[in-house]
Structure of Purine-binding chemotaxis protein CheW:
Amino acid sequence: MGSPSTTPQADTRRDPSAAESDRYLRFTLNGDMYALNIFNVTEILEHRQLTPVPMMPDFIRGVINLRGRVVPVIDLAIRFGRGVTTIARRTCIIIVRITNPAAESASPDDDAPAEAGTQDIGILVDVVNKVVRLADDEIEPPPAFGAGIRADYISGMAKRDDDFVIVLDVSRVLSISDMVSLQNATADPVAAEAAARSSRTS
């Protein structure tokens, strides 16, 4: 008797990320629809008070204390050169986990946790809509112009519910120098203490 065939379901159980590859979190920013692969999203928060950090790029709006961790929050509207996100009732913070390029230079003998190669960041958005499924063949290559933001920030474009959705590549939105700034923000003890105080009073 031959070996049993491997079913797609078995593959999904072996690699949980395979089940998430076509699921995207859709959100609105400045009237445009965007999406992030759900694999990068760890949680969604209602907007809360941000603690400003001096000497940071303007798109870093501040930091929050998330269960004892200092998490920087970036304003994508500023990053895209489209003004400042106005805080309103439905404003949310999407927490995403991205690879930290600085970790590539770390020694393999360093006594660091498994999460040392990643960075959690918050993304300020106007409205979180819903999770949608986008198959690979539904996502077109990013346009050379007309999307309103730099093409290298975009994984592709898709059409859903008669609207165009801009699929973002978070790893391209932040450069290595940006990641260094984010590391500095999370390592600032003054900011950490201020964020902790803010979380206790909010």
Remarks:
- Strands lie at 23-29, 32-37, 41-46, 60-66, 69-75, 92-99, 118-125, 127-133, 154-160, 163-168.
